[in-house]
Amino acid sequence: MANLLRDLLYPFTRPTPPASRRATGFFTDTTLCIGCKACEVACKQWNQLPSDGFNFTANSYDNTAQLSATTWRHVKFLEQFPPSDSAPPSPPDMNLDLRSLLMEAQNGRWLMMSDVCKHCSAAPCQMACPTGAIIHNEFDDVYIQNDICNGCGYCVAACPFGVISRSAFDGHAHKCTLCYDRQRDDLMPACAKACPTESIRFGPLDELHEHAVGRLEEVKARGFKGARLYGDRASDTYSALGAFFLLLDEPSRYGLPDDPDTPQRHMIGDYIRGAAGTLIWVAILAIAVIARAPG
Amino acid sequence: MPGLGASFGRGAATTFQADLAASDCILIMGSNMAEAHPVGFRFVVEARERGAALIHVDPRFTRTSAMANLFVPIRAGSDLAFLGGIINYIVSNDRWFKEYVLHYSNASAIVNEAFVDAEQNNGIFPGLDPARHAYMKETGSWNYSTLPDGIGAVERDPSLQHPRCVFQVLRRHFARYTPEMVSRVCGCKAGDVVRVAELLCRNSGRERTSAIVYALGWTQHTTGVQMIRAAGIIQLLLGNIGRPGGGIMAMRGHCSIQGSTDVPTMYNLLPGYLSHPDAVPQNATLDEYIRHGRGFANARNCSASGFWQEEAVLGYWSHIGSFIVSLLKAWYGDAATPDNEFGFQWLPKLDGDYSELPMFFQMHRGGVKGLFLIGQNPAAGAPNASLNRAALRNLDWIVVRDWFEHESANFWYADPTAGDPKTIKTEVFFLPAATNIEKDGSFTNTERLLQWHEKALDPPGDCRSDTWFIYHLGQRLKKLYAHSTLERDAPIKNLTWNYSRTSPATLPDGSQSRIADEPEVEKVLQEMNGRRVGGELLTGFGELKADGSTACGVWIYTGVFPAEGDNRAHSRNPALNGATYPGWGFAWPANRRTLYNRASADPAGKPWSERKKLIWWDEQQSKWTGFDVPDFEADKHPSYRPAMGALGMDAIAGDAPFIMHPDGRGWLFAPFGVRDGPLPTHYEPLESVVKNQLYATQNSPTVREFRADLNLLAKDVDPEFPCVATTYRLTEHYLSGPMSRFNSWLNELQPEMFVEIDPELALERGIENGAWAVVRSRRGAIEARAMVTPRIKPLLVDGKTIHQVGLPIHWGYAGETVGAMANDLTSLVADLNVSMHESKAFSVDIRAGRLGAARVPKAIEAAIRPAGTDNPIRDTPEFAQPEGRQQRWGLKRG
Amino acid sequence: MPQAELSAARVVTKAPPWHRSVAIDLLCSSLAAGLFAVAAIIYLLGDATDRAVAMVGFVLAFPVMIVDLVCLVIDLGDPLRFMNMTRVIKPGSPMSVGVWGIVVFSLVSFLCFAISLVGIGAYALPFLALFGFPFALVVANYKGVLFSTTAQPGWSSMRWLGALISISAGSMGVAVLLAAAALAGVDDPAAFLRTALVWILVVYAIVFVALQREGDRWTRAARRTFAAGMWLTVLVGIIVPLAIALLAAGPETDCVAALCVIAGSAAFRDVLVKIPHRLDAN
């Protein structure tokens, strides 16, 4: 009985939130990703997340398939080879003019990207959460307090990136915590720590932004015309991301929405339309009652 | 590693991984570094980001290729032709580093008159004994020509014009490796070899350096040693050895495999690359052994006289007496005296090849009764695994020590290709082993770096460290033979074997270890380091003596433990001093990070350039100084020239950086040390889909085959097997999976055995992506899921379209995920130098469908959520629990 | 064949873990709220006969609400977890708004239920009806907005979903009370309820068509995938009851009309809940 009471009252306890700290985040530079998946394993190990089962997808080297309640980092593999590439090669090129040989373009590329919760600065999941379980913590990272989470799944529906899902094991929503526990102890998140090529960078957001702008210039200067930053700043429809990316192609190629939309942007309008509809049927009924044929 | 040993003097990577970051061009070939060595690959990425050209030449477009600026696909097994093309380009376009080559290589040496190059004899060097698959006759023809001065000084032509000088021999040898020829052999474009060569040339010289990285993609061929030799020739010609950002990085296949050749686990080596004595007159006594020197073992013919004899008297190997006597003192202690040759006769004398492949071949014929298997999984991981399993089934008993019950431990009941378990007589003793975090010890990694690791916690249950097992086994043997008076038991009786703890073992948290009889591993390292008999530890191998006053277990490791309490392998200073990280661990020899670093300065001792300086001659202090420990006598002036008849290190000139070689030079032409030819020559793999375009000789004439029903070969372009297969690793698994396939976190990343094929082949054979396919070689057939990918390309080889098939080696019939073994397709053959097999290129055929085998392997239950991991971690507050263990709401579903 | 590239054609979002229990919840909350709201209007604006019919609405609304709450709790997995939603009031979260609506509405509808059933304290009924009315409308309204303010394919572009669900709630309330009135043989309320039903169904049809005209390629894909469910909604939920209400009058036909309205609403809700799952799987 006492336990029941404690459990009942627990969600209503309100500890004082810790003082706000410098906002942190991830900058994932996909040009440096070697697809080793060390981030995935480091994440699972640190956070003690179970395996998602053994499913061979035959989709390049991506057998993780998606982020989930128990997979908070996911390395995507993108094989971009022009179809002509699979044809038998043309007869040996006997033209040994060096300049043209050295300038000859490469055919095909294999892009890799470590995906993660975007830690949106205005997060639809956080806005949608009916319990207040999802918060921006003192590092301004989006964090699910899973002792408060009631498992309604509304955050799952709200996330435009498909990051969150509800665990079948405990019925709570889970996602990347940006290693909140490690940050509290001044440690780097496990994935960034494990990344051998610094493709995943962790740090104060302002520093990451500065670095990312420099990187983009470098990469563009090297001839990658499709290079772009994703989520480094707010768009008309979406806030800036706390975990942003340097991509070499269109976001949709990487399985990211090209123009993410904040669902709650439409909420007031939807309520008004709803109210209008309601008003109409209520009015119809009221008129029918009042103006009924005299009986 | 005779490929590097013969070229430069030491069979080890000449540089260190962090140094790759200083490179201007990195050629990765025969290595999938990003996947197999992802952590070291960070330095390659760093170099690329600084503007270095990153080139990957490989049969498959891998995660390494994805990071490269230039990827060149070649047919598996054709690497040597490609490298030959680069050498030809450098020489014929006059792009070699003149001053470097002239002074630091043996380009000017004149080769013996009797030498006839393979060029003139269908790809065969003089002296071949076809019956024995070895070069035995016409002794001495691979040697230098010597001056008739009574001392035998090497005849030289500094103008490099003499038709028999090494440079001219080399030029003629590689003349046929034209870009067009390379294209026909490798299936790449002719322009590709030019492009790669040009990038290397432009990034070499005084101001710039290029590095070459290789791994098992080169070694696991019957011509692997010669591929490495070819890389050595390129780097000597371009002047890239001994310099920052240069060198040859040999990426090893296991975490301490360098250590296991240093210390070693090799049947034919004693610690520190001393050769193991043979059962021949030249090794009959300690004096004979010392007199014939180390060159004896590496010479191709034991009875022939030749330049190899100089190794006993010239260069650093002239100290072999100090090394062997100190080793014997370390092993036999007080029992080793000058009167009994320090116990030399207690060493067994070799009468044959006892390396792994011949040993398992013998075993499969019933020639071996029992086997200790420690940290190895031949049932799945060795070439021709099915023959290996037949061998295991022929044993009376086997002791397996490992973390998990892998294929070599459960073969008697779990192998789907084997018969009824009742018919298998082998008695299996499985002993659980401690993991590396459950024991103290050291790894010697690919860059000769010793790094100590500390025990973090006690192993569970009966798991014990391998050191514990070997130590106590030794103790019991000594007890067993304590009262024996037989001479043959003397080695065991006299063996020094005292590594027991002097103080109780404590764990990092301060608590007492549960395992009180764990030996003290630092005592082993101290023995390796060496000490004065009954006295203090040695600080360098220069202190070793041949009179029995010093004892040293591994002479090259001397200095790793220079004083009590000073374990240098334990040091972790991450500071960069300009070019190296001298405070991080300990690199043998003598903490030198870049070998042959004398070559980083010009003959006069000045750095070749400010940008690429490493060590240099300091005139004021009159010694060599710089960012690395000089791989040279510290006070030898650059202008020093040996007197006529000088011996030992005195015979090495002040501008001769390769001090392990008797002439102090890097070898373009190897007068000894490589048994299948002084110059690299392309032969096709034993199983090839094309004829050798370069020579009339199809395969290496020195390859050893092991004839057996279980080991048939598809030789001479067998049309039944039209595809080229190659085996490889994935980042997600390790070896045949005895560690990784028992780990759910890794299994979910690569859950199934697959075969990588190109879309055209898939279409031709009707194989769907993700569907089943059967791959067949002369040895057998396996089934795997098809991964159809444009990353694999059909190649045009000599006008014929060739398809390649990629097979990861990670699966077997034990573990959470199970699958077919790629090694059931590979063959048991051995090259002459190191008895290496040929798993990287063999012939197969592929079809859609399944095998329909009577038995399929069964996985152990997947520990998707291992027992106990639901519980909160004890002594840890709620807020600090890992997310996956937070339990407040304790509700379990499904 | 070579693996497909990730492309724009793939759904990026994850479908929420909402299945049948949510569809039933969606139906029950609408029905309960519709019943209550319609009953309240009739009770407050009508005469004594009307009030008797309204009492049927009060009696029915609460049990339906109980079914709804059971579905919600089943979906959450733990009854205690419902409490978590009462620790905050977040006007920005339709679910939070809805939960508070449900909490108050459940209490009020319980009181109305008890009073209507037992007959004690009937004087409080007008006040309770007036007080509960806006909360019933909140319950009828929020679900549609909850769905349309997600990132899910289909849902996220249904701007008129809130209106549609609310009108559907009203149509169900009117249809059920019409059947009740017809069964009780009270012609007067039955007549104006029938008139109201006709007009409400007309509005419903208009909004439904509007909903079909808006939206992105996902809603188009959804229409193709769920053509059967959509036609069921239109045919059974709108056309048939409309025809019945226009052409016939009587307890039997009114009961069939009510059942049709409910079935049509159920069909639409079933389709609605399935949309992201089915598109995700494609």
Average pLDDT taken over every residue of chain C = 90
Oligomeric state as shown: heterotrimer
CATH class of chain C: Mainly Alpha
Task: Tell me the domain tally of chain C.
Answer: 1
How many helical elements of chain B? Answer: 24
What radius of gyration of chain B results from the CA coordinates? 27 Å
Shape of chain C: globular
Q: What fold name goes in the CATH topology slot of the domain at 2-255 in chain B?
A: Dimethylsulfoxide Reductase, domain 2
Number of strands of chain B: 29
Can you give the helix content of chain B as a percent range? 10-25%
- Strand numbers in spatial order across the main sheet of chain B: 22-24-23-29-21-27
Computed structural class of chain C: mainly alpha
Number of strands of chain C: 0
State mean pLDDT of chain B (0 to 100 scale). Answer: 93
Described by strand count, sense and barrel closure, the largest sheet of chain C is: none
CATH architecture of the domain at 2-255 in chain B: 3-Layer(aba) Sandwich
N-to-C span of chain C: 18 Å
Gross morphology of chain B: globular
- Helix content range of chain C: over 70%
**What's the architecture of chain C, going by CATH?**
Up-down Bundle
